[in-house]
Amino acid sequence: MGWRVAGRAQPVTLWRRPGAISALGLALAIGLLLLAGGAIAALMMAAGAGSGGLSTQAAAYIRHVTLLTFLQASLSAVLALSVAILVARSCWRRAMEWRARYLLLFSFLPVVLPTTVAATGLIAVWGQSGFVSAMLTAAGMPPLRPIYGLGAVLLAHVFFNAPLMLRVLSGALAGIPAAQWRLAAQWGLSDWQRFRQIEWPALRRVIPGLLALVFLLCFTSFSLVLMLGGGPSVTTLEVSIYTALRFEFDMALAGRLALLQLVVCAVIVVLLTMVTGRSWSGGAGHAGRHVTQRGDQGLAARLTDGVVIGGFVVLAVVPVAAVIWHGIGPHLGTILAWPALWQATVTSLVIAIVSGGLATGVALVIAAARTRRFGAGLAVWPLDLSISLYLAVSAIVLGTGLFILLRQVADVFALAPALVVLGNMLVALPFAYRVLEGRLSSLATSHDRLCASLGIRGWRRFRQVTLPALFPELGYAAGLSSALSLGDLTIIALFGSQQFQTLPWLLYQTMGRYRAAEAAALAFWILGLTLATFAICVLAARLAGRRHHA
Amino acid sequence: MLEIRNVTFRRPNGPSFSFDLSVEQGDILAIQGPSGVGKTTLLDLIAGFETPDQGSIAWQGQDFLAAPPWQRPVTNVFQADNLFEHLSCAENVAIGLDDAGRQDRAAIDRAFQRLGIDGLQKRLPGTISGGQQQRVALARALLRGKPVLLLDESFSALDWPTRQGCFDSLREIAVADRMAVLVVSHDSRDAAYLGSDALTLGE
Amino acid sequence: MRSFLTILTAVAALLLSAGTALAADRPVLTIYTYDSFASEWGPGPAVEEAFEEGCDCDLQFVALDSSIGILGRVQLEGSSSKADIVLGLDTNLMATARETGLFAPHGTKLEGRTSLPVDFADDMFVPFDWGHFAFVYNSETMAAAPSSMQALIDSPDDLRIVIQDPRTSTPGLGLLLWVKSVYGDKAPKAWAKLAPKIVTVTKGWWDAYSMFLEGEADMVLSYSTSPAYHIVVDGTDKYRAAAFDEGHYMQVEVAAMLKSAPQPELAADFMDFILDDGFQSVIPTTNWMYPAGKAGIPEAFSGLITPAKSLLFTPEEVAQNKSAWVGEWQGALSQ
């Protein structure tokens, strides 16, 4: 018998055959592709319809907005990264194991914190009649200048993205082998040398992906810029698409801007998938424990770290605290007496539940189809493309396309509720999909042989084996999609009207009227509903999972 | 008798293997050898996770190469991940059985008693020891009523006294239930303790 | 899955019933207008009551976020629009609106019924009020207001003003035309110099005025008649309009009925009603503008500034140049 040394067994996927679920998944994926295709085609037609040649003025405007968006997104990404690196190093140096955990816990908050709420909180802290100005005035100094404009937008983007970066960077630092820290301590490396020789190589692996991701988020930023930008001097392509569509009713301009945005986003998404392996998405498990380094215990180092961490807490926590502080004040009573509030609450909740449920359901079907193998990979690409397309097609671009597409056949404003549900579902889809697909494929790999050998197949396998194990992720996906929808100001900005209002839209209007106290109370209301919805979804799923064993 | 005759298998761009062996009912055959010599591949071919390029694999003279894994006269206990984390031990056993078997609670309880894990029926796999988990998997394999039992390093992660206990149960079962058992192991103590024939691959 | 479908059906039913529940037995006259007109503090409720007295109908205002948005909305909806009448455009938009071909002649006699400072004869638009744009300030926090547009532009940059977007709001467009009529080709330079003082550019008049009242700006673009509101309602004369030497741009607000109006007769009745006393008498103390018809002017209006010179482009001039001038504005402001 002649044996030769060999490689390892490959995962068996032979018995994940295409079935009803694959057909359904494929049908849904094709539906999604057609929808996006229709929207893009409508944009192209609209852009083409106005082609009496672009006036030099319009061309200059588009150029200017694009440049401004690039500048703003680059600045935001770099600033957020600098803040995150500083804080991550300080946390690590202070060996804040348990405290760091809390820090990371609340850095989850921006994931579900509605941008509308955050903007209200930022104004409550940094606004002209805000908390910081009040302290300055009390100290006999002039209050802050109004925070509208580029400064406000950058502040908001750092607020949202630095915590995200902090999580990843902390993971990267924790992944540095303990031996390297020990060597550094033995050699007595200075702070700078340590950063250069030990920390930077670890951070450098995750930074390009992080920068690209945050750049994309800031490039497509809409509601923050809408609320804090303060007019045409600070805008993004997204906001200018919105103004072209809803202010000027200029379909040709909106179509052109949307196509431009689409191309830029597609390029960034492709770059993003190129620079990111799985590396940036989390730190390594084998954490090197912190070793006390030369100079760490000095007064200067302690002071610096204290200021950095304290400053970060002020930056990230105080705006949320301000919303809560204002929210539980007497103005909550005022807004609770508004009939419009209750109407908007019901509308928002219904939209959130329906679009969250739909997003989770569609993501589940497509992910389930994806984990099944098709002959020669032939039918996989529509599934993949149907999801990744919606990363590049931003909410505004999609909404604009649908708007232009549907206005030819129907009354867009009469369809608003359905369109808002659809839009929110599509925006949440990639997130829900990422959560479910990851878990499903890992479940599939770990269960394949066992299920094949036990003869548990098809619907029975899904119901008895896969679904119960998937409950936590289903809850998380549903919670996340509903929370996203509850906080949405993008889709509703396109389709909303005085007759069809959601809570964020009402908040935007209230802020527009400059009723700061009522706006804060309203923000608190939205925040509470969002967190409650998220928590209920997650807990209900956990309960359903537990009930299963009983 | 399980017979594997002139079986060859080659992975795309990989090494090629060929096997020729047989195991009687009530016998245990230990498969040994360094990693990469095809121990797991052999079990995969028997269980139907891989398809040989040629040769035949038969039980009592009947070739079952055309059957999918769940229709073969074969049952497995893998090295790890034998149990579904969300199901209790008893449910984990029941899920691998046919409808009649699933109803027969008494049989399940008897199997737990026989393997010395009685009382764990309601527990979740995460709350019991590794040795207990593998015994639960073994209980399921027994109740499935398949005559060929394949164990791929099933007890290798356990400490030696625990492993001995598992082997004791295994030996008893093989004889009592007249099963043909293949045990893949990298540890030569296993074959010695089992007192079984040993086939060393890679020589 | 089944319960999910049940929810979905229930929601669909809910949304549908909300839409159809509005269908009452009386004919409904639908008027698109801007938010502050339809609000409880605006002329809307009084106008509705007065008109419904004389007809067996239900007058419904649909409030849009901004005045120019009204035109965009009916353009977007085209002939399928539910609107009978749009109310809240101004002379600057008349030529543009006429070109859309969406509007019908009103058939109302204007002659002898108006009290406008300019000649107004049009077969499609009926004027309902008028006024002069002006910057309003709080005289308690700002001792001396600029006395001319030039002085405003030359003010130090820590003066904070809030204005409206000319693409969405008739006051915003009014200011754009005001600056244009004062500075002509040099308007972009004037805007560039004004830019640092602009705290924010809002979508509509109401947003900007609220912001000013909350103390987030020193001056707001509004009307010379705005202080009357504070005199009558708040009993204070601390809010003043700044009189500018170069003159003030004028606004005449107008309404028009749609060709596709579902209730053409009711719409025609309403067009005629606009210049009646039932409409005109509520204008000064609810919309805080001068009535276009012959109605009394309250005492509080007597202390207001009266511009030495009224500035006004013809509707055709505006229609021809608007997009170029807005482009200029956008360019100057985004430097």
Description:
The complex is a heterotrimer of chains A (550), B (203) and C (335). With 550 residues, chain A is mainly α. Helices cover 76% and strands 0% of the residues of chain A. Chain A has helices at 20-49, 56-93, 97-106, 109-112, 115-126, 131-138, 150-174, 178-187, 191-219, 223-228, 237-247, 251-275, 299-327, 331-336, 339-371, 380-392, 395-407, 416-454, 458-486, 490-495, 503-512, 516-549. Residues 1-15 and 278-287 of chain A have low confidence and may be disordered. Chain B has 2 domains: 1-73 and 147-157 and 177-203, P-loop containing nucleotide triphosphate hydrolases (Rossmann fold, 3-Layer(aba) Sandwich); 80-145, no CATH class. Chain B has helices at 39-47, 89-94, 99-103, 105-114, 130-143, 160-177, 188-194; strands at residues 2-10, 16-23, 28-32, 54-59, 62-63, 74-77, 148-152, 180-184, 197-200. Chain B is globular. The model of chain B has no long low-confidence stretch (mean pLDDT 88). Chain C folds into 2 domains: 23-130 and 252-300, 3-Layer(aba) Sandwich (D-Maltodextrin-Binding Protein, domain 2); 131-250 and 302-333, 3-Layer(aba) Sandwich (D-Maltodextrin-Binding Protein, domain 2), CATH 3.40.190.10. Chain C is 41% helix and 20% strand. Chain C contains 14 helices and 12 strands. Chain C has helices at 2-20, 35-38, 44-53, 67-77, 91-99, 149-154, 170-183, 187-194, 205-213, 226-234, 264-273, 277-280, 283-286, 315-333, and strands at 28-34, 58-64, 85-90, 103-104, 126-138, 161-164, 198-202, 219-223, 239-242, 248-258, 290-291, 310-311. Mean pLDDT of chain C is 86; it is low at 1-10 and 12-23. Chains A and C meet through helix 2, helix 11 and helix 15 of A and helix 1, strand 2, helix 4, strand 7 and helix 9 of C.
